[in-house]
Amino acid sequence: MSIRVQPDLRNELIKYGIGDWNACYHCGTCTAMCPLSEEGFLFPRKKIRLMQMGLKGPIESSVEPWLCYYCGDCTKTCPRDANPGELMMSLRRYLTSLYDWTGLSKKFYTSETWELGFILFFASLVVITFLFILPSFGIKFDTTLTAQGGVRVNSFAPIGIIEPFDWSMAFVVASLLISNIFRMYYKIIWKNSTTKVSLWVHIREFWLLIFNFAVQPKFSKCDDKKYWLSHWFLMSGYTIMFIVIVVFLKWFQTEEILPFYDPQRLLGYYATFGLLFGLGFAIIGRIIHKDIKFKFSHVSDWLFLAMLTGTVVTGILIHIFRINGMPMATYFSYIAHMAILVPMILIEVPFSKWSHLAYRPFAAYFHQLKKHAVPK
Ligand code: SF4
Ligand code: SF4
Asked: Euclidean distance between the first and final Cα of the chain, in Å?
């Protein structure tokens, strides 16, 4: 395998938020502190060495940045303030842009104009659709109430239109993400590799993917268990909400006012609680600025938090206005909700912050495959 040095790698990485990584003098404290360090797995010091040497190839094929959950233990103890935890975070952004074949991920991570422009474009499309296009097809803001006193939300946003739109969006987003995961697999397992992994090992170790997605065991190794819990609530709340909206919308978007103990409402309440818990932890941590892992926020971190908070708050408003018989407030909250949700899903899931929900468990799976690789 030929390894080429790329002298301008440093300048490239700085665009993704990399700080003073040249300050590192390789004392090894971070490796000793990191809960993920194992024998033969010098983490995160080895990656810093690769960055300093401009070795793009070995960085591109590494899984380690994805195994780091940013507990911050390494940063707290670094005698040179090189901030190894933030370096791993920046590497994850860089790797996300390398996996993405469209080039949009790089644009979003390195240019606020691109990201904000994309958000505003799709938000405007949503607003125009609800205010002008749908009414021109006879779909009106119906202000009459159901016999129970609820809002006729399905006459304003008919399931027959919203559901196919949901599925189309999910199909586009899933196709982009899956194709990027194949590129990730190619870079980690295949490209320039002198080893191979049998099909049987792929099948045998597949459970790890599911396990890592559901439990996030690497994350739980960090000392701060509150962080793991908040992340788990955020992840489970978001996953439930995504599945319900895409797969079970007919069941979820009802006009009937169900009792609060109905499974549909309980599931919605759990997802809302999970999202608010995780968001509260991340936002308060960033505002207080005390905890090391929240000290350095990239623009993409704030945009993601702002959009997710906007989605949750407007979702809560829709629910309150709908069951209290307030049609116009429900409809405008619905438009605001969709105007934030649609660009958020289109940007965050395949190209930005939320893609790590898929990349992390796949990295743990690929890491295990590499352990069982044999010479070609
Ligand atoms: S603790 Fe700091 S200086 Fe020491 S190896 Fe890690 S990043 Fe480098
Ligand atoms: S942030 Fe935590 S998990 Fe990540 S490299 Fe540092 S010590 Fe290890």
From this structure: 13
C-alpha of residue 203 to centroid of ligand 1, in Å: 38
Percent of the chain at pLDDT exceeding 90: 51
Atom from ligand 2 closest to the CA of residue 37: 8
CB count, 10 Å around CB of 178? 11
Domain end call among 99, 116, 142: 99
The finding on whether 19 has its CB within 6 A of some atom of ligand 1 is no
Residues 23 and 132 in one domain: no
State whether 94 and 132 are in the same domain. Answer: no
For residue 158, being part of any structural domain is answered with yes
**pLDDT for res 316:** 96
Task: Show which of 50, 68, 99 is a domain's final residue.
Answer: 99
Q: Which atom of ligand 1 is nearest to the CA of 84?
A: 7
2 located within any domain: no
3-state secondary structure of 26: coil
pLDDT in tens, 120-159: 999 999 999 999 999 998 888 889 998 888 899 999 999 9
Model confidence, pTM: 0.89
**Residue whose structure tokens are 């079970």:** 248
Q: Is the CB of residue 30 below 6 angstroms from any atom belonging to ligand 1? A: yes
Q: Residue 73 CA: which ligand 2 atom is closest?
A: 7
Distance of CA 202 to the CA centre of its chain: 25
Å from CA of 219 to ligand 2 middle: 10
375: helix, strand or coil: strand
The pLDDT assigned to 3 comes to 65
